[in-house]
Amino acid sequence: MSIVAEHVHFGYGESEVLHGVSLAVDQPEILALCGPNGAGKSTFLHLLGGLRRPTAGAVFLDGRPLAQVRPATRAARVAVVAQSLETAFDVTVEDLVALGRLHRLPLRDRLLLQPLHGEDRSAVEGALDELGLAPLRGRVIRELSGGERARALIAAALAQGADHMLLDEPTAHLDPAYRQEILEILRRLAAQGKRILIVLHDLTLAGLYADRVALLARGRLCALGAVDEVLREDVLRDVFRSPLRVLHHPEGGRPVVLPAPPGEDAPWRA
Fold this sequence. Notes:
Rossmann fold
């Protein structure tokens, strides 16, 4: 079970955003995709999820070109979690999670909004329980806190039953407690066999929770490997063009990334 990008290019008009990026999401783990603003992280995630098509190169799902995979089949294998959710009408938590099962339903049941039964109902209930959302099932999404909304989006993806989960900055705009909660949930899902790629800006969160880190900069893959191999001061200085300090957490020794002391010149000022 794998999603593989091979020499992927993508651009908007004459402006190319990605330049020959190759990457595989092929094992149960958390793979953090990090890099500066404008590096192409979200665009690359959309390509892996089939929401966009490369202008050159290809993305493969289990060895088959993703462009040739039917949408319903793709939805059964790959779940894409957006950074935020805007709805034009009131949607409850339970209804949002149930949408994760739409790809499995006959067209007639979708059009008639038939209630879920059997395996589909069980998947929704399991996702609500896994994310601790059963007490909130009747709440309207727009009334939830940011952390609760993030959990609801992940629950909808979990209900899909997909092997792969691609998440675009699910911890954005959350306080430290909610960020930790979301990453703990994802780590638990990876231990259960999910293949998770997550776009992150917070390098310390990547260091604490990811199994591997991929660094994108200027549309190219600059580094890929275990957190200790990638989150190093020399590597990060080249990618982020900024002096960063890498320490190690007193419990477990994982890398913690900090800004350099005030007054230290960035490379572009040297």
